[in-house]
Amino acid sequence: MANENNQENRSLPLFELPFDRRVEEGWKHFLKEEAELRRLIDERADSEEISEQLEILLCPVFTVVYAEVGFHEGKYDLILNLEGDWSRLFPLVYFKKRAPKEVLELWNILVGRQARDEKNGDFQLKTGNDLVSAEDFQIWTEWQGKEAKVSIYCEKLLPLLPERESNAYWIVYTMLDYAMGELAEMKYIAGLELLRVRREEKALMLSELLSHFMEKLSLSREELLDAERYCGLYTGYQMKPDEEAQDGLRRDVYVGSSGFLPLLNEFWRGESRMMDTFHNDGIAAGYFCYPLYGFQGEDRSAQILDYRDEMAEKIEELAGADSFAFIGGACGIYYGYLDFIAWDLKAVLDAAVSVFGASGIDWVMFHSFRQDADGITLFEKG
To answer: Would the pTM of this model clear 0.85, i.e. be above it?
Structure first.
């Protein structure tokens, strides 16, 4: 029976406390308790005390908390970090956007570790006995399209190699986050190498890195730090379809676009770490699958795209933006796919039954982004 229940939870994760309600209740809790956090910041309490208070404030919403605090231009900063995990981006942006005005009067809510203000000059990072400064780093970049491979030489980190190499790379990534912003580092740095020997050619300093990326990408500082912008970046992809596959597991797909490609990649590999993280926080992610045999004519491709976009708009309108986030879709030989994150899956599925049912389609199925889940038929014409 336990295995059957686990299978049902994977296939139809209807949470007792979905993420939208967790966020609503979480902000109420934050408002009641945040004064203690402000007191700790004002008194320059040690990092352990502040971390404990952050856990108290944020654990009602997030199972795992990565956050920092600060004070800038008369307001307190709550910085919600991704720690290299793209699965945190959409939930953190959702959480930020639903902050009550009473919170925003005192707090800046920021997603992703922020680039240091250039006016502050050099900055340091201390971990155990290791202390490094921005001026200790020399950097070289090699660009391919809109991504860069980055090589870094830092003499002070050489003693960590090779026995404590992971510590050295953690220090480097953290310093990069403070130099150019965590989201920009995650998105635009395709590879990182920590050099044992300094290169001969002229190097960039860490303080120059943000301006360098701004110039290469033709983006402003604000754009590079804007978490919502990253949610709206879609990547197109093409695949070789399996012409025999008619099981709704996307093996018939030949073209698509996604605003959350890491989730799709995990699904194709048969992995579920991101989905496990989502489910721990009351979040569901999946896709609607529906037949394409009814779309005919010379403009068939345009019809299919227009239909998917129309369904997404109507589901969001009916379920509410608090419940539904469109993250892309795909076209297969046999089926169309509409990809989404559900902050309240029941509201989204109820809306989908109504919207798809009124569209004239013969049937629609929901499938979680897990290969170990079953597809759920939402409706089928008699």
So the answer is: yes
